[in-house]
Amino acid sequence: MALRGVWQLQKLIVSYCDWGGSSRGIRAFMESNLPSFREKNPQLEVVTELIRGQHPHLKGFYRNKNERVICVKNMDPEDILLHATRLRNALGRKVVKLKTRHVTKHPSVQGTWTTEVKF
């Protein structure tokens, strides 16, 4: 995703094994879908990395110095393309858990309304 017109994902590393069975889907992805993915995303540096004996994964490096790793073992090429697109569309921010179900700048002094309120 672009923040103020600047794509946040800088580099995508596609790691795979040329021998392992769990890398079968990512090898098919590299033959069929990766060239078109590179053409559609010229702002993105896509690097393939051969790591023997390891499960395949996608690693994204963002402008804010964060990185995300997604394991893609035993996945179809379409699923791997979906995960690569999600990495490209993400902002790279850390996930923040909310303390309450609603977020407001001015919380109610009386409390939140629920359906169990009896008058």
Automatic annotation (TrEMBL):
Keywords: Mitochondrion. Its main location: mitochondrion. The keyword Mitochondrion applies. It comes from the Eukaryota. One of its GO terms (molecular function) is structural constituent of ribosome. Pfam families: L51_S25_CI-B8. This is Ribosomal protein/NADH dehydrogenase domain-containing protein. Residues 18-91 form the Ribosomal protein/NADH dehydrogenase domain. The keyword Mitochondrion applies. It is found in: Mitochondrion. GO terms for cellular component: mitochondrial large ribosomal subunit.
